[in-house]
Amino acid sequence: MSISVQDLPRELAAALRPEPTDRIELIGLRARGHHGVLETERREGQDFLVDLTMEVDTAPAARTDALGRTVNYAQVADAAVAEIEGGPHQLIETLASRIAERVLTEQILVRRIEVMLHKPSAPIPHPFGDVRVRIGRRAGPVPAVLALGSNLGDREEHLTRALELLRAAEGIEVAWTGPVVETDPVGGVDQGAFLNTTIGVLSDRGPWQLLELAHALERDARRVRAVRWGPRTLDVDVITYGDLVQDDEELTLPHPRARKRAFVLAPWQAARPEAMLPGHGPIAALLEAAPDRDGVRPGPHVPGFGS
Fold first, then answer.
1. Strand, helix or coil at 273?
2. Domain boundaries, the chain
């Protein structure tokens, strides 16, 4: 059953259709390169200027004043200068594209970039102010893994609803789903058994935007955070975001306990046997060593999962 976003509560609809992200601009960066069609340009070189506009979600950094949650624009400048000083290329179109691709590759938080490359000393036999090319490039979607669990209310319905909302979310493509397993609770709190699964997505959103979506799914299920590791209608954790490894109080990646949690690893391994957990190796080997492995058993067949 497909979900109509227009019929959802405003807060949930906003999470599924987020506002355009913020921008960081680096203007007037200058470096000397040897690019051009003419032999004299390639031999003698000339100055190039570049303006960079990067789409980045700055809210997580603003909340904590933490550099690790935003783009290090000194590193961006280093990347652009390295491309200008490298080459050579005949066309500034090629150089601009190389700058964009390098920044998107090195800065995973940048989801889109616009590069304006200036060639103020272009060999034109007439008075002119500037020659410039402007290009825009978007980063490809990032593969991410989410873990879902429920042990309150209609457990199957909570998982199904979360999957439907993920499919309706802008900038999210559900790539695969693991089977649903039933698991004994961990953490020492007396409570009922969980239904757990994992979902692989391709995300055009940054990691904190993906976390915010996960929290929105939990709120939709009316999760109450009363007891740590206690019973819950829905738990949604971001397990991986590409190969990103970071230690952050709000979003540590990979998830710090995933490597020891069979209720995460078992459905993941069933769906993607060759998968790796960044920094920890094959999930098949991690599953073999997981301390809660004996507490995981096949769960009910829930439509939409296990494909």
1. coil
2. 22-138, 142-298
For 86-179, where are the alpha helices, taking DSSP H only? Answer: 92-106, 155-168
Residues 178-220 have pLDDT tens digits of: 999 999 988 777 778 999 999 999 999 999 999 999 999 999 9
What secondary structure does DSSP assign to 234-246, as a single string?
-EEEEEEETT--B
Per the CB < 8 A criterion, the answer to whether 84 and 95 are in contact is yes
Q: Among 210, 274, 286, which residue's Cα sits nearest to residue 242?
A: 210
Question: The pTM is what?
Answer: 0.90
Burial of 301 (0-12, 13-18, 19+ CB in 10 A): exposed
Structural domain 142-298, CATH architecture: 2-Layer Sandwich (3.30)
CATH number of 22-138: 3.30.1130.10
H helices of the chain, in order, are 10-16, 39-44, 59-64, 73-85, 92-106, 155-168, 207-220, 262-271, 283-289
Active-site amino acid positions: 119
